[in-house]
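Workshop exercise sheet. Pairs work together: one partner reads the sequence aloud, the other fills in the structure field after running the prediction. Swap roles for the next sheet.
Pair: D.N. / O.F.
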Amino acid sequence: MRPLLFALLVLGCSSRDQSVAPRDAEGETSEDEDTLPKCELAVSKGPWVVAVDGTSAKIRWESCRSGGGAIVLAPEAGGEKKTVPSAVREAIVTTTNLVPLRPGAIDPAGTYFMHEVALTALPPATCFTYELAPDPTAKGRFCTARASGDTFKFAIIGDTNPGFGSIEKLLDTTYGDRPDFTIHQGDIQYYASGLESYTYWMDKMRPMLRTGAFYPSIGNHETEQPREREEYVERFFGKPGFDGNSDYYRFHSGGVWFFALDTEIDLEDKTAQGVWLQEKLDDASKQPGYRFSVLYMHRPFVTCGDKSQNSTLRARYLPLFQRTHVKLIVAGHMHGYERFEMDDITWVTSAGGGGGLGNVNENKDRPECANRKAAGAFWDATVITVKPGELSGVTYDDKGAARDTFTRPVP
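Structure field:
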């Protein structure tokens, strides 16, 4: 099978002329490395933004060149532009990831160069535009954290598999609302579909990556290929500098605290992640200007579809959630959309980012399903608006139609 797959490789980004030859799925050097064209792109993936707080942000992109780069930054509302150089870090990718059903979507092994512009001393509650000096067509926006009580928007989406499902209209509609940032419920990209690579994914997910900061959680599809977690997920999005690590972390905006959890590692209350969650939720609730918290993760605490519902953990943590005013909990994994209203918390399943749709009623006999207010097997994303005393949501499908709307009181 391997010779056939390598014969399909007609596009991609490799730097075999530098230090690392392409390797096959088992990590062996391929005799067919000359089928992989040389990559000399100044911007091979990106840009995207991580680690935004009230006064700082990080803009990242990947390059096939070792030279430096820069961004041109300007306030979105107008003002003086400034050019800020990037720091460059060499990254060696050891495994060529093959995409048999879409040959041009290969991720070849090689030496790549990660650029990061660490911005500091930014004004709070301000949106900016930026473009990359190596390629002015590579541009985006982000907003620094809002003050407590400010109105702001964020997007929720999960299980993004654009190679499988046509979600262009979904993305255009969702990001036409210009949310400040996106929280992602894991399964960022699917090698398992045989239809996409990170090269392909980065291109198709541009509306999401370039509209605001990107904050992913970890799903079960982040480890499909050898060293995928280290060489792709953590290289692109990990270690954002928040209170936590690449597995789980927190950030805040507008007096609302967001907690990204990793359901692929233990979340029991006595584990490192469980202790961190309890301590940091309590800590957030005592901060000046605190309003409420949002949790997001991959595997759901409640669903009427997937069999992996963790109702035991939900019951164990519910007193903590209620005491610290957790008002929204978002999960993925079950490919479809659900919204529950129970225990004074809105629970959303948002895993319709392009993957094969599941049966949202597979386990509809569960008692908690009586509290499900909306559901459907459709590709989806939701825009949440936080106002003083109110949280509202609009869920869109792949045609750009609003499929669910809701409004809930919040502190």
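Discussion prompt: The domain at 152-409 is CATH 3.60.21.10 (Purple Acid Phosphatase; chain A, domain 2). What would you look at next?
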